[in-house]
Amino acid sequence: MLLAYDSLTGNVRRLALELAGQLGAAVVDVRTQAPAHEYLLLTYTFGCGQAPDSTRNFLDQHSPLLRGVVASGSYHWGNNFARAADVIAARYGVPVVAKVNKGGTAADRVRVLTWLREHNRYGTLD
Ligand SMILES: Cc1cc2nc3c(=O)[nH]c(=O)nc-3n(C[C@H](O)[C@H](O)[C@H](O)COP(=O)(O)O)c2cc1C
């Protein structure tokens, strides 16, 4: 399972690289790279509860390999907190693995790592 991430100010990028380091998984930057295998998408929420255009463009091309979504947001967006995860999950029929504030907490990372280990169906994380 790859970790495909989209990040504007660095929160999601830091989270993705931290998770990848712990798992030995490969990362894909959705702005510049394409996935070779199935992936967990990590993205952020923009506009008013939307996924960023860069994530939408990536999914337009690579949604068949999408297996789950993590979205970052900020608590002060209230009902729209990390809503990009809900939008993407509903559109593509994949689970919301986590919704995190900014770069996420240690508990968020455990949650995502647990999901990744349970869904590592090929026995490799690259
Ligand atoms: C213009 C703008 C709109 C945003 N809209 C939302 C939003 O609707 N909901 C939310 O939870 N966070 C929203 N955020 C917060 C970001 O999703 C949050 O800071 C996230 O951690 C950014 O990830 P990144 O650092 O990887 O780019 C918004 C941020 C900006 C700058």
TrEMBL record:
It comes from the Bacteria. Signal peptide: none annotated. PANTHER family: PROTEIN NRDI. This is Protein NrdI. The gene is nrdI.
